[in-house]
Specification:
Arc Repressor Mutant, subunit A, alpha+beta, two-stranded antiparallel ribbon, DNA-binding, 155 residues, homodimer, 5 helices, 5 strands, Dna Ligase, domain 1, 3-stranded mixed beta sheet
Chain lengths: 155, 155
DNA sequence: ATTTCAGGTGGTACTTTATGTCAACTGGTT
DNA sequence: AACCAGTTGACATAAAGTACCACCTGAAAT
């Protein structure tokens, strides 16, 4: 079971690495390290969470670099910034169609894979004149932990 | 036309004021001023945008107060923080079901009133164990201005 | 294997966005 | 007009993100 997960995340890592190459980005230690984290985690970490996880492993890793690499990954479409009401960016390396649930209390974000909620189209001619490329559905509610305790945690 | 809008926003203001009273909040100058702004604007301002608009009108208004009042309004359900991939909170005083379109380039946020996109239910038993209370759909694309010019603006 | 250099990184400084604290003030009630 | 719980202003601080520039490195060419 655990080894299945390991398998799946290293498979995901290889795909991300390939995507990186395909976009003409050099595979630096720092980028590999970030791709590893992103492939393993499914909790949609913030830039600072990723930095905190990696700074001990990757000697001399700079916070600036983490922000910059994440920006690059988003720009080339390898990773996305997910929408939430929180005032910080969270990143997701799974570009397949899926949705997110945000805990109102502690801010945790979980995936929801359920194609029943997929939209069947996009708005074409809306009154605001925007062209629409894509969408995200953000559900909100309470995570299992916050359902039990009625008080605040940190994500 | 313009007076219709004025009419509509003052109507909205009165509803918000009533909601404030109903929640047992005192109607201070500062809260009224914020409700006014929120009733008039449909651009989903950030806390600092509201502060910048109000600080000249409301003598001695404090930035802290703006943040605190918005928090309170969200807590009592008078206003909502909308979901977007941007790392800052945007506020919306329209609590009716509608959707948002965010410009990928400049960050502007517009409303989309189109019930065709409303979901017909919420996820009940999802694998992550979250209870789900509500949802938001965030579309992304380009605003009319950014469609013309291919370069960056500030919202 | 060595050289080369465009692209990438580290470190520092800085801005923007948000929160914590507490004395002083005020809306609404008596 | 007096009271006081709730609210505010000012300041300090934290958290999140950006700008800048000298130096370094991945990977392509030789």
């Amino acid at each position: 079971m655990n080894s299945d997960l390991k398998q799946a995340s290293s498979e995901k890592f290889r795909r991300l690495e390939a995507g990186c190459r395909a976009s003409g980005l050099s595979l630096t230690h720092q980028r590999r390290a970030l791709l590893h984290c992103l492939a393993q985690r499914s909790d949609h970490p913030t830039a600072d969470q990723l930095y905190d996880e990696l700074k001990s492993d990757v000697g001399g890793l700079s916070r600036t670099t983490v922000y910059r690499i994440l920006d690059t990954f988003v720009r080339v479409g390898l990773v996305s910034k997910i929408s939430s009401p929180q005032a910080k960016a969270r990143f997701d390396a799974d570009m397949g169609r899926h949705h997110h649930i945000v805990c109102e209390q502690c801010g945790k974000v979980a995936d929801l894979f359920d194609s029943d909620f997929n939209l069947r189209g996009l708005p074409e001619n809306n009154s605001s004149g925007f062209t629409v490329h894509n969408y995200e559905i953000t559900f909100n509610g309470l995570c299992p932990l916050c359902q039990k305790i009625g008080k605040e945690n940190e994500s």
